[in-house]
């Protein structure tokens, strides 16, 4: 097929795709009508499709390609590890060198209270691990009834049954319902959910108090944990007010509730620290991570577990939980090499002091655009909330699909961003340069202008 001209090649692949490949999170019928875009290669912050289009990937794949594409070094590490030891399990008293070294490396970068690292194949699996570990922990402590986990509306914690149930995405819950023992509270989304005249600080405290109210309603003796993303990602890049996390921490401590901080997006540099727990100064009991751990070069995730939880799990006999690919040697070796590249290139500091502030200032300037109601973001993650009327925060009619319109326009001109509701969101590779940020902002601004002219 490679000898065909690009259009024929693409059409042939699209037909094969239609006939055989069921895509994740996709309206298949609509996709089949339109035809899939086939991504064939990538380098740095750019992806290329089968028709030769070059697209600046401002989503870093799916929030994961932190070091950027095309690091040959990782291919060499994977090949060498496959030749040495392609696979072995960690179940029955064995381990492998990369998994041992990666656990030590992740722990050394994690907040000081972290004691041990558990590996999974993905972020969703990490949250399945959390659900099981929370219940196992409290059972070991003699309080098995502390099994309910409180989560948030519009949170995202993955797509397995546990991940989807912990998440607060109504459109996912509607397809099959959620498992028992999970309760949801309001999200800390000031722009959408504040009362008239309510400051961000006041709103942050009110959103946190929803946790206290829920704990009191259920009884603290029934509640095992609270889970939240430091910054909601898939929900639309929602950065909570500064008052939110300190109050959540206080409430979890007061009622003896474990705090799970879902860092699957924020882990490994995105907020300008290795973990957002450090950025927000939160002490978490469990930190699920994945995405940036390997920059997406191979699938691997895990959970960083606090000393107090790890002690109980370690002392509690066999914890009957794990995955065939927990601590997979090739994935672990690639993840460790990925972290070494982040260190060598100083990407975390670069995002904190140079490119992160630069991106945020450029995004903030887009806030003057007539379509942009609110700019949200931190370091290397950002969002524009699009509205019809800025003064009253009135959204566009749903059927206009305003954010999808701008996204389609951006993609057509060579910029990959994502639309979530009425938000345009982005999470560029941490290696993005100031010049590439200029290109991103210029393409985004042109797409906004074009759609603005269309809808006026
Ligand atoms: C992506 C994501 C997950 C799920 O990770 P998968 O690797 O897709 O299973 C969980 N939590 C958050 C915050 C995520 O963004």
Describe the structure.
The chain has 456 residues and is of the alpha/beta class. The protein folds into two domains: 37-67 and 346-455, Aspartate Aminotransferase, domain 1 (Alpha-Beta Complex), CATH 3.90.1150.10; 73-344, 3-Layer(aba) Sandwich (Aspartate Aminotransferase, domain 2). Helices cover 43% and strands 16% of the residues. The chain has helices at residues 6-20, 28-34, 60-63, 72-85, 97-109, 123-140, 161-166, 170-173, 190-193, 200-218, 244-254, 276-280, 307-315, 329-344, 347-366, 402-412, 434-455, and strands at 39-43, 46-49, 54-57, 114-120, 148-152, 182-185, 223-228, 258-261, 286-289, 301-306, 372-378, 381-386, 415-416, 418-420, 423-426. The chain has a four-stranded mixed β-sheet. A hairpin with a 2-residue loop joins strand 11 (372-378) and strand 12 (381-386). Bound molecules: pyridoxal-5'-phosphate (PLP). Pyridoxal-5'-phosphate binds at residues 63, 122-124, 127, 156-158, 163, 229, 233-234, 262, 264-265, 290, 301.
Keywords:
456 residues; 17 helices; alpha/beta; Aspartate Aminotransferase, domain 1; single chain; globular; 4-stranded parallel beta sheet; 4-stranded mixed beta sheet; Aspartate Aminotransferase, domain 2; 16% strand; binds pyridoxal-5'-phosphate
> What Rg is obtained from the alpha carbons, in whole angstroms?
22 Å
Assembly state (oligomeric) = single chain
Helix content: 40-55%
* Structure annotation, total helices: 17
Strand order, main sheet: write it out: 1-2-3-13
Bound molecules: pyridoxal-5'-phosphate
């Amino acid at each position: 097929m490679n000898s065909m001209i690009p259009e024929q090649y693409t059409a042939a692949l699209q037909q094969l795709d239609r006939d055989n490949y069921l895509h994740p999170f996709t309206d298949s019928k609509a996709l089949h009508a339109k035809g899939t875009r086939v991504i064939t290669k990538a380098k740095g912050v750019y992806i290329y499709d089968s028709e030769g289009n070059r697209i600046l990937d401002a989503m870093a794949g799916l929030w994961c390609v932190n070091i950027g594409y095309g690091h040959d070094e990782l291919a060499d590490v994977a090949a060498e590890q496959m030749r040495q030891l392609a696979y072995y399990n960690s179940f029955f008293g064995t381990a492998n060198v990369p998994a041992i070294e990666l656990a030590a490396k992740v722990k050394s970068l994690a907040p000081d209270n972290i004691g041990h690292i558990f590996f999974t194949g993905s972020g969703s699996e990490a949250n399945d691990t959390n659900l099981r570990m929370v219940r196992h922990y409290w059972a070991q402590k003699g309080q098995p009834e502390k099994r309910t986990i409180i989560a948030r509306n519009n949170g995202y914690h993955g797509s397995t049954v546990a991940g989807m149930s912990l998440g607060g995405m109504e459109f996912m819950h509607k397809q099959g319902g959620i498992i028992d023992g999970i309760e949801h509270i309001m999200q800390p989304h000031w722009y959408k959910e504040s009362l008239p005249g309510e400051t961000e600080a006041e709103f942050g405290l009110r959103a946190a108090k929803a946790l206290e109210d829920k704990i009191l309603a259920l009884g603290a003796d029934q509640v095992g944990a609270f889970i939240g993303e430091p910054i909601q990602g898939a929900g639309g890049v929602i950065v909570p007010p500064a008052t939110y996390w300190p109050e959540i921490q206080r409430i979890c401590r007061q009622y003896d509730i474990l705090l799970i901080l879902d860092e699957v997006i924020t882990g490994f540099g995105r907020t300008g620290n290795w973990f957002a727990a450090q950025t927000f100064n939160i002490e978490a009991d469990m930190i699920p991570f994945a995405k940036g751990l390997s920059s997406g070069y191979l699938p691997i995730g895990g959970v960083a577990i606090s000393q107090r939880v790890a002690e109980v799990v370690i002392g509690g006999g066999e914890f009957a939980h794990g995955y065939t690919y927990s601590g997979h040697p090739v994935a672990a070796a690639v993840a460790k090499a990925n972290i070494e590249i982040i260190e060598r290139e100083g990407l975390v500091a670069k995002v904190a002091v140079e490119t992160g502030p630069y991106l945020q200032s450029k995004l903030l300037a887009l806030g003057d655009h007539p379509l942009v109601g609110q700019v949200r973001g931190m370091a290397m993650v950002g969002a524009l909330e699009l509205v019809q009327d800025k003064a009253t925060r009135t959204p566009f009619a749903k059927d206009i699909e305003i954010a999808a319109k701008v996204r389609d326009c951006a993609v057509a001109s060579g910029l990959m961003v994502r639309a979530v509701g009425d938000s345009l969101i982005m999470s560029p590779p941490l290696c993005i340069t100031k010049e590439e940020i200029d290109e991103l902002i210029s393409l985004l601004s042109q797409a906004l202008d074009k759609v603005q002219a269309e809808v006026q």
